[in-house]
Design brief:
It is a single chain. The protein is mostly helical. 79% of the residues lie in helices and 0% in strands. It contains 19 helices and no strands. It has helices at residues 3-7, 9-31, 42-59, 64-101, 104-136, 158-163, 172-175, 179-196, 201-222, 225-247, 249-273, 279-296, 299-312, 317-330, 333-349, 356-372, 379-390, 398-402, 405-447. Helix 4 runs parallel beside helix 8, helix 4 (64-101) packs antiparallel against helix 9 and helix 11 (249-273) packs antiparallel against helix 15. The protein starts with a helix and ends with a helix. The protein binds aspartic acid. Aspartic acid binds at residues 297-299, 332, 335, 373, 375-380, 409, 412-413, 416.
Length: 448
């Protein structure tokens, strides 16, 4: 038997890995800034845009209509471009991630670890949200709840939610940007490529090339982010002003304190203890993506930048390209906090006191609701209806917080993407350790 025959599908796997490595190297070369041309880093540009947007928004409060009519559309164009690139990015990056691992078991291990981490941290987030909202309960204003109206979204049963994850058509999930379905498609095709083996090597190459092309397109779109951020944020500030922030300030403050506590306590701890990285380094490296998430209020839109930040922090491409798109779709710690805090706030406005068992129900439903929340602006507010319904709270209460939803959203999205990144750092570190241990064992065995 010749060597090729004995290698079987492993031959293709190795080849796939080589092709992947080559493509990654060439992509890295391409992404390098031309020498001699010093440009302010994107994070700095985004930060300046953020500050300018707040100043301009405050100055334009009496001309909010102008800001909404003429400035916001440019922000919408930017968001549209991001939405356009997100489906191919998720599809190809997950496929490339799966084939690069060339081992279905490894994909399962990484996916399993990520999902467990995501669920646990989300449950922690809701618990923090509920605990703090209860502490602040006495400070919430008693608002008038008569005449509130909110169009209830159609409720979907838990079984339907599971059925809806699986695509029944190749094109629709992509045209509707249904990310869970796109992820399932990418996994099935990725696994099939691994199983086909050597014959699928051209497909591996094709997927990597497509991945590089879409990454390049994304890089071009991201260069517009300072303008996009300005145009998205300025109208929000002009419309809401300090007035509305003041009236709902307490509940906003509660949510923001929870966001910060969750990031500082939970992520710092996990990143340090399981990921082996200093939390300071982690948050510093994540700053560009966090600023972007804050201004765009979209986890999916922040995905490309999040990948870049995590890779710069040392996470492997293989892990980021799989764990981050998954997280942007199912992991929403900020959204879970928001849902917990708002449930208590709305209950308190209606003079309702929740029982401990109702609180447990909120933790469970908010965890599930956050999985079903799309990573786009405002999606978490729609899912809040499901949480309120689960404990019999009036859905119309959402109208109380709807006016300031964008402000909640900016913070919760920032937390959402930071949670995804912490998972990528941790999983990458665990994978690293595992392969080092395996290499050591192999070396010891060959020494014997
Ligand atoms: N805007 C959030 C996100 O993209 C989702 C939400 O509305 O909670 O992560």
């Amino acid at each position: 038997m010749n060597e090729k025959e004995t290698r079987g599908p492993d031959g293709a796997e190795n080849m796939a890995a080589e092709v992947m490595e080559e493509a990654a190297e060439s992509a890295k070369e391409d992404f390098k800034e031309p020498k001699g041309k010093k440009q302010m880093p994107l994070a700095g540009q985004i930060f300046i845009a953020l500050v300018l947007a707040i100043i301009a928004g405050l100055l334009m409060q009496s001309h909010a209509h102008f800001a909404v009519t003429y400035i916001q559309p440019f922000g919408t164009i930017f968001l549209n471009l991001i939405k356009f690139i997100v489906v191919p990015i998720v599809l190809f990056s997950i496929m490339a991630g799966v084939v690069s691992m060339s081992d279905i078991k490894k994909v399962g291990a990484i996916g399993g670890t990520s999902i467990v981490y995501y669920l646990i941290t989300t449950a922690c987030a809701t618990t923090i949200g509920l605990a703090l909202a209860n502490v602040f309960d006495g400070f919430y204003p008693v608002l008038s709840t008569s005449g509130l109206k909110f169009d209830k979204p159609e409720s979907v049963s838990a079984m339907d939610t599971i059925v809806n994850i699986f695509p029944n058509n190749f094109i629709t999930p992509m045209s509707e940007a249904n990310m869970l379905k796109v992820i399932v498609m990418a996994l099935i095709i990725g696994f099939a490529i691994i199983l086909v083996g050597e014959k699928a090597a051209p497909a591996v190459k094709g997927i990597n090339v497509c991945n590089d092309i879409f990454m390049k397109a994304m890089e071009m779109i991201l260069k517009l982010s300072p303008v996009g951020v300005f145009c998205l944020l300025c109208p929000v500030v002009a419309e809401n002003g300090p007035k509305i922030i003041g009236s709902l300030g307490m509940v906003l403050l509660t949510a923001y304190i929870c966001y910060v506590i969750h990031a500082v306590v939970v992520y710092s701890l996990t990143v340090r203890a399981i990921g082996g990285m200093s939390p300071f380094k982690f948050f510093k490296g994540m700053l560009p993506a966090m600023l972007f998430a804050f201004s765009s209020a979209s986890s999916v839109g922040t995905l490309p930048l999040n990948m870049e930040c995590c890779e710069k922090l040392g996470a492997s491409k293989e892990v980021t390209s799989f764990v981050l798109p998954l997280g942007a779709t199912i992991n929403m710690d900020g959204t879970a906090i928001y849902q917990g805090v708002c449930s208590i706030f709305i209950a308190s406005c209606y003079g309702i006191h929740l029982t401990p068992s109702q609180m447990v129900t909120i933790v469970l439903t908010a965890t599930l609701a956050s999985i079903g929340t799309a990573g786009v602006p405002g999606a978490g507010m729609v899912m809040l209806a499901m949480v309120l319904q689960s404990v019999g709270l009036p859905v119309a209460g959402i109208a109380l917080v709807a006016g300031v939803d964008r402000i909640f959203d900016m913070g919760r999205t920032t937390l959402n993407i930071t949670g995804d990144a912490s998972c990528a750092i941790i999983v990458s570190h665990l994978q690293d350790r595992k392969s080092k241990r395996a290499a050591k064992k192999a070396a010891a065995q060959s020494g014997n």
